[in-house]
Amino acid sequence: MLPNLQHMSDNGNIMHLDGALPIQYLPKPPKRPRTSFTSEQLQIMQTHFIQDKNPDAQTLQRLADMTGLSRRVIQVWFQNCRARQKRNPLHDSIPPLDRYQTSWI
């Protein structure tokens, strides 16, 4: 690691230079809750995925506005779909509507 940011203590733990806490004891940031998609949101994203598998920033923002989801959630959904397609090229890369729908709104 970078010697000016951390160092090894005598017992082998990595310490911050200020000597506060070993890195393994620093609190982890909280996990973001999973996003539940409605069937309408999935339909919008899946329809666009068929047309464009790698949307630009403007398109991501437009989809976010249409769905009410954040731009980052839309971006990750497209990344996951591309990864599924790469992993299973012979199978349909777009998940069925009910597969990732965890709540009924």
TrEMBL record:
One GO process term, biological-process aspect: forebrain neuron development
Tell me the first and last residues of the signal peptide. Answer: none
**Record flagged with keyword NADP:** no
Specify the DNA-binding region ranges: 30-89
Cite the InterPro entries for this sequence.
Answer: HD, Homeobox_CS, Homeodomain-like_sf, LIM_Homeobox_TF
Question: Annotated Gene Ontology MF terms?
Answer: DNA-binding transcription factor activity, RNA polymerase II-specific; RNA polymerase II transcription regulatory region sequence-specific DNA binding
Short name of one Pfam family: Homeodomain
An example Gene Ontology CC term for this record: nucleus
- Domain Homeobox: from-to ranges: 28-88
Task: List the keywords (alphabetical).
Answer: DNA-binding, Homeobox, Nucleus
Keyword DNA-binding included in the entry's annotation: yes
Compartments, as annotated in UniProt: Nucleus
PANTHER family cross-referenced by the UniProt entry: LIM/HOMEOBOX PROTEIN LHX (PTHR24208), LIM_HOMEOBOX PROTEIN LHX6 (PTHR24208:SF121)
What name does this protein carry?
LIM homeobox 6b
Source lineage: Eukaryota, Metazoa, Chordata, Craniata, Vertebrata
